[in-house]
Amino acid sequence: ERLRRLPYEDLGTTEGSSPMGGLFFDTPRFANSVPFFRFQRFGHSDARTDSDHKLVVVMVGLPARGKSYIVKKLKRYLSWLGFQTKIFNVGDRRRLAGSTGEHDAPAGDSGAGSSSSSGGGGVPLERTVRSKGSPAHACSGCSSLAALPTGDIAGSRTPPCHRCETRHSSDFFDPDNRQAKLIREQVAMEVFEDLLRWLQAGGQIAIHDATNSTIERRNALISRLKSEVDVNLLFVESICTDADIINRNIRLKTHSPDYIGIDPKVAEADFRVRLRNYERAYQAIGVAEEQLDTQYCKIIDVGKKVIAYNVQGFLESQVVFYLMNMNLEPRIIYITRHGESEDNVAGRIGGDASLAPNGIRYARALARFIDRRRDEFAAGCHEYGRSASGAARRETPSQRRRGEPEFEVWTSILKRTMETVECFDPQRYHVKNIRSLNEIYAGKFEGMTYAEIARGFPEEYEARQLDKFYYRYPGIGGESYADVVLRLQQVIVELERIRHSVLLVTHRAMARTLLSYLMDIPTTHMPDMELPLGYVYACEPRPFGNFLRVWRYSQRLDDFEEIDSAAALKIRYPRIGLSDPGTTPPLPSPAETA
């Protein structure tokens, strides 16, 4: 309804189409042949296809097996492609239920009258310290001991300990604890109901993030989904046999919301008991699911081995294809624009100009900078014993030259990017020229300045300002940012697959699109990211996301200096000239996830 009120009359809206379909897809000037973006055609009257189906991804696996790592990466990738994607975490609901008393034990059960975080529901770890001389007393939110305030009557209940009521100790996950098991199952199904309601409201891919470690739980989810129309189910089981990875994940778990304020050693000991409780009841995906022809995918050791069963749908195939290309090898993804070109000096867009004198100086400094950064990163891998090759040693330049290059440099096939990397030592760096990294093609506006476009084509200029993500440049071969996402999909998958560092020397639109994926920036903000010339963005994959560092080239120093990464990723919001000042601003891009 808000889109219908926008001044799109001159943009060729298709009569009779839905607002999403007409404005963004059916209109030739805003058309997009990308199959992924057909998913945004809510309410379209055309015949239904496989792309009209929705998908529920249900995670399966023991704790500390990388489920949350997989979920976050998968959500980031699918959202970047344009799917409405959302994560539904059962652990968050469990903690919330414990704090509100939503799932109190039924009367007559063990621990009757207590909340889910007390009695038979599990005893939270002690978080309060009694002062000397203060009488011991049980807080009302858990069974830990608290100092009894002066004037309280012995035997009365005190208010809950600070932040303790939302945690559950390892006893809560004991498979023999029937009351706690009922609570866990109830919470998991409530989250699943929320997930289905979100899909019915327009969502496309929902991820149920939980252990779902028993056949009983998984059968309940399958049975509930049978009543839903056009909603497919895919189980994704994460299995890890690497003891080093498991121990590292366990140490990370001591910083989870369950253990805020707890001594790390105490938290780790409790989590290991929790893990043993899960292992007692764990039932891997297998024959039971195959008898029901349920789609599933097993990810073993973060992509080293992948088993897929009965995977048929388009959405499911996209998920499995992406998961097959993950790895945990330490590496850094560097992204920079080319050096200043002659067209940059003139303010012209597109084209295939050579580097200007400032661009040549930037190219020389960039080669020196990457050489230095590469050696620093290798030294860091040596220090922490986690080099990509598995050997805790730092390789010398002569050792690198004897083998295959372990650092790649990717450029577009345009002259200004290829000239930017001419100073790199070919013995140390493997340079690839990739057409997909070419700048967004401006159609008949190639070689023009934005001022010339505004004067000669004011309607086109305003249309682009109104929606830069879906706007497609006029003329043969003109592209939109949505087209660029499709063009870069294989590049993204390759970035996930490679096990060594890489430098991408590309263009502004490409850098925006790549960084929006790596840093989980909504596509609504992607076209307005300020990424000037002379900056290097370094993304290092880590367990809870990509860590970003930014360097800026200084002509005075003829070198790079590090700057605040948060300040470097600025988003410039253009002023949109609407004919009616009271008109409601446009909706966010359908790819944006709340």
UniProtKB/TrEMBL annotation:
<dbReference type="Pfam" id="PF00300">
    <property type="entry name" value="His_Phos_1"/>
</dbReference>
<dbReference type="GO" id="GO:0006003">
    <property type="term" value="P:fructose 2,6-bisphosphate metabolic process"/>
</dbReference>
<dbReference type="InterPro" id="IPR029033">
    <property type="entry name" value="His_PPase_superfam"/>
</dbReference>
<dbReference type="InterPro" id="IPR013079">
    <property type="entry name" value="6Phosfructo_kin"/>
</dbReference>
<dbReference type="Pfam" id="PF01591">
    <property type="entry name" value="6PF2K"/>
</dbReference>
<protein>
    <submittedName>
        <fullName>6-phosphofructo-2-kinase</fullName>
        <ecNumber>2.7.1.105</ecNumber>
    </submittedName>
</protein>
<feature type="compositionally biased region" description="Basic and acidic residues">
    <location>
        <begin position="96"/>
        <end position="106"/>
    </location>
</feature>
<keyword id="KW-0808">Transferase</keyword>
<feature type="domain" description="6-phosphofructo-2-kinase">
    <location>
        <begin position="49"/>
        <end position="99"/>
    </location>
</feature>
<dbReference type="GO" id="GO:0005524">
    <property type="term" value="F:ATP binding"/>
</dbReference>
<dbReference type="InterPro" id="IPR027417">
    <property type="entry name" value="P-loop_NTPase"/>
</dbReference>
<dbReference type="InterPro" id="IPR003094">
    <property type="entry name" value="6Pfruct_kin"/>
</dbReference>
<dbReference type="GO" id="GO:0006000">
    <property type="term" value="P:fructose metabolic process"/>
</dbReference>
<feature type="domain" description="6-phosphofructo-2-kinase">
    <location>
        <begin position="167"/>
        <end position="330"/>
    </location>
</feature>
<keyword id="KW-0067">ATP-binding</keyword>
<dbReference type="GO" id="GO:0005829">
    <property type="term" value="C:cytosol"/>
</dbReference>
<keyword id="KW-0547">Nucleotide-binding</keyword>
<dbReference type="GO" id="GO:0003873">
    <property type="term" value="F:6-phosphofructo-2-kinase activity"/>
</dbReference>
<dbReference type="InterPro" id="IPR001345">
    <property type="entry name" value="PG/BPGM_mutase_AS"/>
</dbReference>
<dbReference type="InterPro" id="IPR013078">
    <property type="entry name" value="His_Pase_superF_clade-1"/>
</dbReference>
<feature type="region of interest" description="Disordered">
    <location>
        <begin position="96"/>
        <end position="132"/>
    </location>
</feature>
